[in-house]
Amino acid sequence: MTTVSAPQPAAPAPRPAGGFSAPPPAPAASVYQRPGLWLRMKKHRHFYFFVAPFFVLFGLFGLYPLVFSLFLSFVKWDGLTPMRWVGLGNFSVMLDDEILLTSLWNTLVIGMLYIPPMLALAFLLALALNTSWLRARAILRASIFLPCVTPMVVIAIVFGLLLSAEHGLLNHALSYVGLGPVAWLNSVEWSKPSIALLVIWRWTGYNMVLMLAGLQGISADYYEAASVDGATRWRAMWHVTLPLMRPTFVFCMILSLLGTVYMFDEVFVLTKGGPGTSSTNFGLYLFNLSFNDFRFGYASCVAYTVSVGVLIVSLVLNRFRHGHGSDA
Amino acid sequence: MIIGWAVALVALGSLLASLKPGGRAAAAGEPLDPAKLQRPEQLAGPITVWSWNVAAKGLMSTREGFNRRYPNIDVTVEMSGTNLQARFLLSLSSGTAGPDVMQLQGHEAARYTATGRLTDLTAVAAKYKDRFPPAAWANCVHDGRVYAIPWDIGPCAVFYKRDLLQRYGVDPESIETWDDFIAAGKQVRERSGGQTKMLPLSPTNIALVYEMLLQQLGGQVFDDEGRIAVASETSRRVMDLIRRMREAGICANVDEFSHEWMGGFNGDHIATYPGAVWLGGTMKDTAGVYSGNKARWGVFKLPAFERGGRRTSNKGGSVLSIPDQTPNKEAAWAFIEYALCTVEGQLTQYAKFDLFPAYLPALEDPFFQQPDPFYDNQKTRALFAAGVHGLPLLHRTQDWVEAQNYSGQAFTMWDTRHEPTGPMLETLSRKLQRRLGRKAAPEDATSATAAGDQSAGAMRNAHAGTSGSAATSGSDSTSAGDSTSTGDSTGASRNADAGASESDSAGASVAAAAPAGGESR
Predict the structure, then answer these.
(1) Which residues of A touch B410 (CB under 8 A)?
(2) Which of A218, B154, B194, B324 has the fewest beta carbons under 10 Å from its own?
(3) How far apart are CA A71 and CA A238, in angstroms?
(4) In B341-443, which residue ranges form alpha helices assigned H by DSSP?
């Protein structure tokens, strides 16, 4: 094995003579017509029947709410009394909604606080779990993944006690290092970091599993080739692992961004958006608008507007994934 | 194949039919028929009640007595717990799968009574109006129609740990005003080396304490026409008191109903719990669950703002209502009537779970003169009953919960960032005006610019004041007192406030036609 070449793509299948764009040979008699849609559906009815359940369920629980919610954006409705058409009234209210701005800002800050450390941690853990010398790998992997499947109620109680300002375990630990008690959940400054802490703890395992799958998808041949070329492990990391992991990174990034925008239960159980509005994020604000204030029309309007924004950001991010996709 | 499609179509059809808003039970929307109530034995069928915590257990305890009168009605109390409100809203909105009897908290009843989705109980319930405190009855009425019945009320006092106060040399009977309370709190803190705080009060639940103290002073969040009144002098006094408590270092940063709050029932960290009578029920219910030494509890009256001032208030309290979509309205009403409008039903719940009867005749029962063993045989029942007749009325609006949310946020920021009180209240008032689409009350300090708007007429959603002329006249005198005091020196405003509370309690007790005559002072 002195010479190793990078794997070649499979040879292209031989094309039929006559060029790429040649139409299939037409039947001799030109009276043939493609059968109509209905006939084709009838012919393939078995297949339609078997895929029908998904479409019926999607229509009822996916498409219908989506369309109904768009309709709600233009009405005023408390869920109980008749709806009132307000046209673009909801949108004009939104322009002057400082709590919405605060909640979007908080969403951004929480995202910035947790996404980079979480992805970095997940990557390091995945690297560690991907080494050959590690023992008890399955147990480690499961225990890192465990927070992600722990019921939120349990998490709420445990973190409430850990982060409590009065008798919290974390403050107790800090007191040994001489650091004063921190009002984790009761202060404007620390409520967002506390939530970021919980999110990191809860979702690192999930991202680690994704990254582990990405790492295991990289062929060993590349590393072998790199070592033959004299690359150190460090350079192999920079020039082989990281570029090939980019699609995974971008995927995790998109998932985390979406998770940030629609994050709800972490905030709800930990701070309920407080103190004040200091940790009210977008998901919680939507919930409050709907189920605290009974303003379903306005809530739909806000949800739709922000969703369009998120869609645009996701599309831009997705271009990064496929943009220079030659090495992916 | 055709059979397969047929099955799928039928399944889809039935699904759609069940989703259709018209697909409700046949009797939905029909008015309650008082004639059917004449024959208890003919009322039958299962009814479901949605409730929670101690309150649900209280209702369950009335089933035995209820079934002696109505043997064929089978009552199920579902303790549905979290997100009950959202679920109730969804079931009302879809017209199906709701309870026959629903517990609503007094402060949020208004958002449902105004929708027409609750059964109109006026025909059977109007006769009970004078047997409930006006403050509680007002929560149940919209446009002069009765949609719910007051269940319990929450007369307030201070629960204290006898051994702790004794250890740190505080005589609870000497605490007459909030100033005394703060001084005692400092003493407790100093003598315990900072280990024991006087009360649980975290920045995130100032709003609840604010409401209790505001009602003690006879202040309002909304005036009788639904205008925003938070920026009043009364409001400022309440916030000043809260600030003094927070800055005295006597408050534990513990949220109400958190684990630490419950855990504090037995430990040495918190000496007193200012709160409503139902707190005792929660204590009795949970104290046994937590390990360690059991505290010995006592109760003293709520401290007043100044010597001789009112020494009670109200916190919490619920009502029971019947969704309009339920088919079995008569059975549901029979249960509500027994549980809430009879001395027997109310006393059963009070004796076992400390749900304080809103039904005034129940307060005259000898049971209220008996000592309570949980409080070292102190006569706490009479203590709580003493102030009930003088309780000022707090105007609730349909958007009360939303307003409470904004107030809570503002108060938390005010505390954590040490913002000055006056500007905070004015900002809050403007925010409430904008978000709720309401005007400022004329006596509101912020309305200097909008003062010309006084003739702006009745607000859309103002309805709390429609319950009875006596009740509203009482609160009118309050607002009059406030308007004279606005912007004046503090001495003048104190006098005005004291005057307001006096005239108010007098008006309320006349309205309640109270024979028990227990004035709080």
Answers:
(1) 276
(2) B194
(3) 50
(4) 343-353, 380-386, 400-416, 421-436
* Rounded CA separation A267/B239 (Å): 28
pLDDT tens digit sequence for B25-43: 444 567 888 878 877 778 8
Which residues from B are below 8 Å from A276, CB to CB? 409-410, 412-413, 416
> Over B243-292, what HEC string results?
HHHHHCCCEECCCCCCHHHHHCCCCCCECEEEEECHHHHHHHHHCCCCCC
pLDDT at B385 over 50: yes
Amino acid at A19: G
**In whole angstroms, how large is the CA radius of gyration of chain B?**
24
Tell me what pLDDT residue B344 has: 92
Query: Which of the four pLDDT bands, split at 50, 70 and 90, describes residue A231?
Result: confident
State the average pLDDT for chain B.
79
Residues from chain A contacting residue B204 (CB–CB below 8 Å): 186, 272, 274-275
Is B416 within 8 Å of A166 when comparing Cβ atoms? no
H or E element in which residue A260 lies: helix A242-261
DSSP 3-state assignment of B153?
A: strand
B314: which 2 tokens?
């109200």
Cβ-Cβ contacts under 8 Å for B217 (sequence gap 6 or more): B234, B237, B238, B305, B310, B497, B501
Closest CA to B300 of B384, B196, B185: B384
Distances in whole angstroms, Cα of residue B488 to Cα of each of A186, B144, B484, B493, B496: 35, 37, 8, 6, 10
B81 pLDDT band (50/70/90 cuts)?
A: low
Write down the residue that tokens 């039935």 correspond to: B14
Nearby residues of B412 by Cβ (< 8 Å), 6 or more positions away: A274, A275, A276, B203, B204, B206
- Torsion sign, CA atoms A220, A225, A231, A236: negative
Instruction: Give Cβ neighbours of residue B215 (< 8 Å, ≥ 6 apart).
Output: B313, B314, B315, B391, B392, B394
Query: Which residue reads 């709420």 in tokens?
Result: A156
- B83, B90, B147, B258: best mutation site toward chain A, by most A Cβ within 10 Å? B258
Helix (H, G, I), strand (E, B) or coil at B318: strand
Nearest to B401 among A49, A277, A292 (CB): A292
pLDDT tens column, A178-214: 887 888 888 888 889 999 999 999 999 999 999 999 9
Give CA–CA dist A272/A268, Å, rounded. Answer: 4
Contacts of A166 in chain B (CB under 8 A): 252-254, 260, 269
Cβ distance B89 to A294 less than 8 Å, yes or no, reads yes
Q: Measured between alpha carbons, how far is A12 from B300 in angstroms, rounded to an integer?
A: 91
Q: Inter-chain contact B89–A157, Cβ cutoff 8 Å?
A: no
How, if at all, do strands B101-105 and B45-51 pair? parallel
Q: Which of A42, A191, A56, A232 is nearest to B412 (CA)?
A: A191
Q: Against a cut of 0.90, is the pTM above it? A: no
Instruction: Report percent pLDDT > 90 for chain A.
Output: 36
Distance CA A209, CA B208 (A): 45
> Which amino acid type is present at position B413?
M
CA B38, CA A324: separation in Å to the nearest integer?
82
- Measured CA to CA, the distance from residue B152 to residue B320 in angstroms comes to 10
Alpha carbons A176 and A323: distance in angstroms, whole number = 51
Are B192 and B269 within 8 A, CB to CB?
no
